[in-house]
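lol ok so funny story. i was supposed to be doing the assay writeup but got distracted and ended up predicting the structure for this chain instead. priorities right. anyway since i did it might as well share w the group, maybe its usefull for someone
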Amino acid sequence: MNTPPRHPKPEPPYRIVEQPLLPLRTAVVLLLAVVAATAAGGLSWLARSGVPTTAMTVIGVFGAAITFFDRHLEHTAVVRTTPEDR
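and the output, tada:
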């Protein structure tokens, strides 16, 4: 039996571009926020703060770090052009 493929290949003018689940910039911002929040939580814990105070510190620093790094990391896109892209 000759069955057609489930997902036929696109015609020559079109090509499939796989997008990442999370853009690189977003991943970097979240990673830096997690590092900052972990450091603040560790310092708060070492200062003998209670668990609720440490948890609120971590949450606050995480939110502030996301805002800070989102505004301070550049929004630039690198576009590579090759002859086959045209």
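The chain has a mean pLDDT of 83. The CA atoms of residues 25 and 75 lie 8 Å apart.
back to the writeup now i swear
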